[in-house]
Amino acid sequence: MIDSSEPNLSVMSQCQLLNISRASFYYKHKPIKAEDLQLMRLIDEQYLKTPSWGSRSMRNHLRRLGYKINRKKVQRLMRLMGLEAIYPKPRTSRPHPQHRVYPYLLKNLKIDRANQVWAADITYIPMSRGFMYLVAVMDWHSRKVLSWRLSNTLDTDFCVEALVEALSRFGSPQIFNTDQGAQFTASAFTDVLKSHNVRISMDGRGRVQDNIFIERLWWTLKYQYLYLWSFDNAAELRKGLEQWFNLYNRERSHQALDNLTPDEVYFGLPHPFAEAA
């Protein structure tokens, strides 16, 4: 997929063309058993339905499906996938001590225009022989996906790359909202926002509703596309995602958006049914 010996195209350029972070190229996954990949796929599917389930509930679910698995293994797989049960709970874990956590700014805020609020999130993407992580930047008002990146590590680089692309293509939002994940609290990420005078907002811990629109995006992407197809490598996955996001932005109407597409709302295009109505 990427040839480090290519004289005319650097590794950085090849990674940019493939929408993959450089860290993903240099990092090598440890081999994962086929059975574990299947378990991770099942965990991912169930997590979209019941994000409040922790390792105990997920273990019980897998046992009902016939898998002999203990809670410790479920915990390990969920950590690898970057999943955590979403529900109000004591602060048993804390963000990195050098990472500042910002307040949530969207409560009771009327969001009625493009570039008022952007949001970002990361999700686990299963493949036939492995997995990747996907980050997307979304305009909250229009639901338009502004940029995205793939990585095989939960590093900060691919999140920063997606953010920089969105800013360079679409300008700056007033507010940028994320969860409290280490990728988004890292100074490498927040410094980019500060340099563009963007106010930083972060979800309350254990509050899935704080970033609900991008959570819905993940559900739609996986159940209406990814779970229906098989991808052998990152290049195939990237090509498929590029086609799907183009379709999502340009052709998929939303009932909540008066049956307009994200692009139509974001760019303020005339309603296509106005004359018929």
Tally of distinct domains: 2
The CATH first-level class of the largest domain comes to Alpha Beta
CATH level-two architecture of the largest domain: 2-Layer Sandwich
Number of helices: 11
Strand order within the widest sheet?
3-2-1-4-5
**What would CATH call the homologous superfamily of the largest domain?**
Ribonuclease H-like superfamily/Ribonuclease H
What is the CATH T-level topology of the largest domain?
Nucleotidyltransferase, domain 5
Through-space gap between termini: 50 Å
Sheet with most strands: 5 strands, mixed
- Quaternary structure: single chain
* SS-derived structural category: alpha/beta
Which blocks of ≥5 consecutive residues have pLDDT under 50?
Answer: 88-94
* Average predicted confidence as pLDDT: 86
Describe this protein's structure.
- The chain has 277 residues and is an alpha/beta fold.
- It folds into two domains: 11-81, no CATH class; 117-259, Ribonuclease H-like superfamily/Ribonuclease H (Nucleotidyltransferase, domain 5).
- The protein has eleven helices and five strands, in the order αααααβββαβααβααα.
- The protein has helices at residues 11-18, 22-26, 34-49, 55-64, 71-81, 157-170, 182-185, 187-195, 212-224, 234-250, 262-266; strands at 117-127, 130-139, 145-151, 175-178, 199-202.
- A five-stranded mixed sheet has the order 3-2-1-4-5, with helices on both faces.
- α4 crosses α5 (71-81).
- The longest helix is centred in the C-terminal third of the chain and has 17 residues, at 234-250.
- The chain is globular, with a radius of gyration of 19 Å.
